[in-house]
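Write out the bound-state structure for adenosine-5'-triphosphate.
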Amino acid sequence: MITFEHVSKYFGKNSQRIAALSDVEFSVESGKVFGVIGPSGAGKSTLIRCANLLERPDEGRVIVDGMNLIELTPSDLAQARKKIGMIFQQFNLLSSRTVYENIALPLELDGKDKSSIKQKVLPLLELTGLKSKQDAYPAQLSGGQRQRVGIARALANQPKVLLSDEATSALDPENTHAILRLLKDINEQLGVTILIITHEMEVVKEICHHLAIMEHGKIIEHADVVDFFGNPKTELAQRFIQKVAKDHLPIAVKQRLHSEATPNSNPLWHLSFLGKTSQEPLIAHLMQQLSITLNILQADIELIRDQTMGTMITEVVGSTEQIQAGLKYLQNKGVHVEVIGYVRNPE
Amino acid sequence: MSEILSNSINPAFFSILWKGTWETLYMVLVSGIMAVMIGLPLGLWLFATQHKNLSENPLINKLLSATIDVTRSLPFIILLIAIIPFTRWVIGTTIGTTAAIVPLTIAAIPFMARVAENALLDINPGLIEAGMSFGARPMQILLKILLPESLPALINGITLMLISLIGYSAMAGAVGGGGLGTVAINYGYQRFDITIMLATVAILIIIVHLIQYLGNRLSRTLNHQ
Ligand SMILES: Nc1ncnc2c1ncn2[C@@H]1O[C@H](COP(=O)(O)OP(=O)(O)OP(=O)(O)O)[C@@H](O)[C@H]1O
Ligand SMILES: [Mg+2]
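---
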């Protein structure tokens, strides 16, 4: 549905020139939710803005629904954009129009008559739960409600693709959750393909099928979301997962956590095991056969898309040899182990 | 005291002021409307030609901008005199209220254009991107998104323009343009009629306040931010 072929985009001139995108290649299958994560300045916004040519790439092709957008005339491009909805971090609603009128705007510009506009807007108000707010002005709405208006407006032309750049970053966790559920419904019920930029791992876990990680204008890892969490390949991906794990540690542990090993410190492991593995009595084996002491800080079963994944954070107490043996054993069983850091023990 | 006053009151006191007031309002409103009709599109054009996603054109933008600045930097009284030949060519005469409308309009157009440009510059540029994202053409973005969004700011700018026009119209009046300016010169200055002088001042103050009040109210009603 969306294909980027050798897309590059540069900003600035001469020595100041930086490649916001360099030779980016990926494609998003029809009906999927594709997430892009990466550190600030990686080029994520530039990437998504190239998908509807708000930003014109300097090289390469951007193909959406079979059309190379780069070759279109301005009026054909405007036409093509009607089938590519976009939602924004700052919502970008018209303050002079009510909720209803904001959603109706794309249809009005299309020259639709009042009754056919109404026929399209009403179901969108229903879908986004804004029925009771249809005559309110954006200033009277909460952030979550404003983003719903943004979503409804983006869907007004019945697009095949929805682009979302940090659409939940300005929202509190509760609203974030509700918006994500709405996006998931839109994907599943209306079959809209979604390209979503985020820095929130929760977003990825909840709705993405595929995931790409960007750094310095390049996509450095690209995987099915379940594989990504079960078996991250690049260091950046591992860091992302560690960061999420670290964020969830109890404060008392965080304070004792160091990145370097010292003689009186124990490693802190983050284990993740996919599907069946989680049923096996791995822990018992480590403790009984290898005499490693595990001080389990956290254990969880998560749902990533529709797959279960067990995660565990544990302090590992044992000799270097025991720990090596334990690591090898877990890796043989297909368990992914990350060393988050080392916990120093009080003397 | 009251005797002196009543003795000195011109028998045509009310009709003189009435006529002057109407002439002032006529000049200000007609030139104000013309300035909006010409200056607003110029302002939109000024904005569009500097925006990469609308109809960027640095050359036109520079020319337009320079012309506006030159016109704006001319003191009104100089403009009034400088364009006398033009006024005569358009209206056929250079005295009277209708003739005064020409310089008033010319002075107000560049002001209006800058007001409109600034009102558009103040709008969140994200709205232009949103418009583009759902397939709006540049003209639609200007007229259906930016113009309505800038309406409260435009109303404030127009209010300001009308108030400046009242001041300018008095200047035009002083050189034969009619309106309260002419009344003040003919009766207040040349015949030392203090009552008429004070009355014109009072009426001008009332008109200015009324315009300001109505402008504020309208702008506030239209503002949903
Ligand atoms: N219009 C622009 N002009 C110049 N440089 C730009 C422009 N837009 C982006 N850049 C640069 O391109 C690089 C990528 O920016 P981009 O906004 O795509 O990053 P991002 O991944 O979205 O970051 P964030 O997570 O902070 O939103 C950055 O170095 C940025 O400074
Ligand atoms: Mg960004």
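---
The pocket of adenosine-5'-triphosphate (ligand 1) is lined by residues A 11-12, 18, 20, 38, 40-46, 199 (CB under 6 Å).
The interface with chain A takes residues 124, 126-127, 129-130, 132-137, 140, 144-145, 148-149, 151, 222, 224-225 of chain B (CB under 8 Å).
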